[in-house]
Structure formats: structure tokens, C-alpha cells
Write a structure and sequence with these properties.
By secondary structure, this protein is an alpha+beta fold. It folds into two domains: 48 residues, no CATH class; 220 residues, no CATH class. It is built from seven helices and 14 strands. Strands 4, 5, 6, 7, 8, 9, 10, 11, 12, 13 and 14 form an eleven-stranded mixed beta sheet that branches. A three-stranded antiparallel beta sheet has the order 1-2-3.
């Protein structure tokens, strides 16, 4: 028994029918007309698109060798549960994530050894200067943010990051229109042509970073990117001296979703930039297949400062390699109303002076 093939309209995805009078395929929903051969070729092209596959080899990091962890200690925060690692010469009295006291729980154990580390290039003095510059000129900022003793509490922290490398083969389809307008002595005409546009090809990705800590906000980490992975070196515990290191609690396998999200968006943006010359372009579908995907474990340098104000936590991050800073700033409402009253008083005085001047004239 033969199975009738159902055609979908390339314009609106409605079920399309054969118009005996026009001898063409016609959509009853948008009235678009197509030659049968052209529609069949379009359907064959859609059927040939491979299924999406975004799988990874996530065997990142390595096992610690005997003796490597002897000089490391783990500190656990009683409040937020964060775990940080430091060498035995580095004291940790406050949690870098919430500012509350931490206790030392003993010898470091478990987890994987990082493959790479980007050493700090921005020292604490430079990080404090970056914060002061960030606060400069913000008149409505609460006083606690500008307090010198508070700013000096900024801490150097190595953040665990999974780095993903892959080759992506993509197939992206768009609906596009091209509009032409003209007029005569009586009417104005608009002709709209519809196109199905396809882009296919490959693109390579190296070192796509995904934050491996739930304590570090992903948006904050991505806001202080990029980090220059070209300056990364093989990990050695000596780089932890004087700094803290966050202990990852999101492994490489659990980070795949975020890596795929970043790769998919970057691929779609790159392909969309090649679709030009149309009045409008709307993406319809994208299929991405990954090959040779692998992950590595690295530590990124970040200066971090947490501030509590009016029951809210405000976190600032400074790229420990480039000095780029990110973080939200609150507004002191008391200062705002004082400032507003001053502006209103100045405006009233100016208005009175102007009125008096007109009266004299």
C-alpha cells in the first residue's frame, strides 16, 4: 500500500495541497505557490539534514601523584558550604564567597588535579586600585563600598574552569524575504519575495570555558572574560602559594550543557552573519554535530570581593590576568533623596533668580 507524502509549506509550515487549476502546489493558509519539482527538492534537502549530536569526551584532569597534596589544606564555610583549597602557609579566615568565617577541616583529598593554571598577573595592590577606580564618581554608592578597610578584604581566588575543544559541523536554515516597492500615478506597489536560505559548514572551537563552581556566578565569570589561555602553564601547587583555590563541585560531564549552549550560539551567530542582502532573515532550524570533542581542567585567576548591604550580597570579580572588573552596584536611597532635594533646591533658586531678572527688565 503506497503512503502519500505530506508536504509542508516552506513559508508557514502548513500542510500544502495540489491546486488542479494552477497545476501547482498551493498553501491554503498563506496562499504561497510552488512548482512540484521545487517543493520535492526542498523536502529532500530537509530529509538529508543529519540528526544533532553534541557528545563529548570529558576525561579531564588527572589523578594526584603521591605526596603532591601533602602541603594543601581544605577550608569549609559553615554558612554557604563552600570549600576552598590553599597551601599550608596561606591562612583562610573568611569565606571568599559570603564573607563568613571558615574552619580548617584538614588535609586536602579527592577531586582531580588541574591540567592547566593561568597564574595571577594583577597583584592585590592593582586589584584594589581597580575597585577604587570602579567606585570613582558614583555619588550615590553606599559608604561601605568605599571604605578602605573593606576594599582591602579582596581575595585572590583560583576558579575551577572546564575548557572544551571541538570541531562543529553545522546546518542552519533560514526564512528570508526581499521586498521591492514602486509606484505609479495612482498606486504604490510592494512585491515581497520569499526565500529558503541554507548555510552549512564547519567551525572549530578551542578552550570554551565553563565555570566549574556553583559558588561562582556564571554571568560574573563570563563578564570578566576573556582570559588568555596562551599564558596558561602546566599546573603545580606552587602557584597556589598566597592564594585560595575553589574546589570544583560541577564536574566536566555536568558542564556539557553550558558548553553546548555557548558553542551553539557562537556557531549560529557566525553563520547568520553570512546571510546578507535580504529585507528580513528569520532562523528556522539549526543542527550541530560535534567531532573530536574533549575537555580539560584549568584554574583561572580572579580577585573577588563580597559586600553585604541592606540584606543583599554584592559580588565583584576582577580578572586576575587582565584587570577587567564586573559587578553590580547598589544605590543608597538616603543619598538619592538628599541629592534630589539639593537638585530641586538649586532648580528653585535658579527659577527664582530668572523670574527676578525678568521682573527687573
Amino acid at each position: 500500500m503506497a503512503v502519500l507524502q505530506e508536504f509542508k509549506c516552506p513559508n508557514c509550515d502548513g500542510a500544502i495541497e495540489f491546486d488542479a487549476q494552477q497545476q501547482k502546489m498551493k498553501c491554503p493558509y498563506c496562499s504561497a505557490e510552488f512548482e512540484t519539482e521545487a517543493l520535492q527538492a526542498y523536502q529532500n534537502e530537509l530529509a538529508a539534514i543529519p540528526q544533532e549530536n553534541m557528545q563529548w569526551d570529558t576525561a579531564a584532569g588527572s589523578d594526584w601523584q603521591p605526596g603532591e597534596t601533602e602541603g594543601l589544606r581544605v577550608y569549609t564555610c559553615n554558612t554557604c558550604g563552600g570549600e576552598i583549597v590553599a597551601d599550608e602557609t596561606t591562612g583562610a579566615s573568611e569565606c571568599p564567597f559570603c564573607g563568613n568565617p571558615v574552619i580548617m577541616t584538614g588535609q586536602f583529598a579527592g577531586a582531580l588535579k588541574p591540567d592547566l593554571v593561568i597564574p595571577f598577573k594583577v597583584d592585590k595592590k592593582a586589584a584594589i586600585a581597580k575597585l577604587q577606580e570602579h567606585y570613582k564618581g558614583k555619588l550615590l554608592l553606599p559608604k561601605v563600598f568605599k571604605d578602605q578597610n573593606h576594599i582591602k578584604e579582596v581575595k585572590g581566588l583560583y576558579v575551577p574552569v572546564w575548557l572544551f575543544d571541538t570541531d562543529a559541523d553545522a546546518h542552519v536554515r533560514y526564512k528570508a524575504t526581499r521586498t521591492r516597492t514602486w509606484s505609479d500615478s495612482q498606486y504604490r506597489y510592494t512585491e515581497t519575495s520569499y526565500f529558503s536560505v541554507t548555510r552549512a559548514g564547519g567551525i572549530g572551537f578551542e578552550n570554551v570555558p565553563v565555570d566549574g563552581s556553583t559558588k561562582m556566578d556564571d554571568t560574573l565569570m563570563e563578564s570578566i572574560e576573556p582570559f588568555n589561555i596562551g599564558e596558561a602553564v602546566d599546573f603545580h601547587t606552587a602557584y597556589l602559594s598566597g592564594f585560595l583555590a575553589d574546589k570544583y563541585d560541577v564536574d566536566a560531564q555536568a558542564s556539557i550543557g553550558r558548553a553546548n549552549e555557548r558553542i551553539k550560539k557562537s556557531t549560529e551567530d557566525a553563520f547568520a552573519a553570512t546571510v546578507q542582502g535580504y529585507t528580513s532573515v528569520v532562523p528556522v532550524s539549526s543542527t550541530i554535530n560535534l567531532q573530536n570533542g574533549r575537555a580539560r581542567y584549568a584554574l583561572y585567576p580572579v580577585w573577588i570581593l563580597n559586600t553585604q548591604w541592606n540584606g543583599q550580597k554584592f559580588t565583584f570579580g576582577i580578572n586576575g590576568q587582565t584587570g577587567k572588573i564586573a559587578g553590580d552596584l547598589p544605590m543608597d536611597k538616603g543619598k538619592f533623596w538628599t541629592w534630589l532635594a539639593g537638585v530641586a533646591a538649586a532648580a528653585t533658586a535658579a527659577s527664582f533668580a530668572l523670574s527676578y531678572l525678568f521682573w527687573l527688565l
